[in-house]
Amino acid sequence: MTVTLITGANKGIGFETARQLVELGHTVYLGARDPDLGQKAAAEIGAHFVRLDVTDDASVRAALATVDAAEGRLDVLVNNAGILGAGPIDGPTALQVFDTNAVGVVRVTEAALPLLRRATDPRVVTVSSSLGSFWAVTNPDRPEYGLPLALYAASKSAATMLTVQYAKAHPDITFTALEPGATATDMTAAFGIGRSPVDSARTVVQLATAGAGGPSGTLRDEHGVLNW
Questions:
Q1: Which residue among the candidates 29, 145, 152, 166 is catalytic per the annotation?
Q2: Helices (DSSP H) in 82-219: which residue ranges?
Q3: Chain mean position to CA 11
């Protein structure tokens, strides 16, 4: 049975990804900062809850230790946790956004690597964004061109670059950065845009369940590889 850990999974795309993977037979560890919300979400879909705050090293280590003790390996890691950081730009906000969206990817991935290496076909899917694509945000024909989310965009550029570098450093593991599509979640509520998380999660699930091989170190959306 495939063992999967998803960060930031008590709501939105993360929760829907967890639900769909449970339905496909995965053993899913649903990571969330809030124990009450996380336990409730996990119980609703038949997943296992682990408290996991991607901005806290001890929390990350403890979550991966829980998976290790129970399963002895990790087949799929989905780096989903993220924050928008909209509004006035200042140093503390920038630190918070990058700590969650980029440094959090490093914390969780580094802690997960020993478990991933014990899997037959390990893969890491990082929910990034086309807002982190230089090609997209400088293209007037793209919707990203008109979205002024500097910290989010920059942190997602970092998340995509981390994906590329991890793929080069660990060729035995498939690393993919994903643009899931504009999605109606708590994070995007102020913009009034996006489709259901059910639809966006399908692309995450597709990458999480892909067969062995395939390109590593790319930014993709549901249609294929994206320029960035």
A1: 152
A2: 91-98, 104-116, 134-137, 150-169, 197-208
A3: 13
Look up the CATH number of the domain holding residue 166.
3.40.50.720
Nearest partner of 29 among 51, 56, 60, judged by Cα: 51
Pairing of strands 224-225, 218-221: antiparallel
Full domain range(s) for residue 163: 3-225
Say how far apart CA 205 and CA 223 lie, in whole Å.
14
pLDDT tier at 184 (50, 70, 90 boundaries)? very low
Look-up of token digits 């806290």: 56
Separation between Cα atoms, residue 43 and residue 47, nearest integer Å: 6
Has 29 been annotated as catalytic?
A: no
Total domain count, the chain: 1
pTM: 0.92
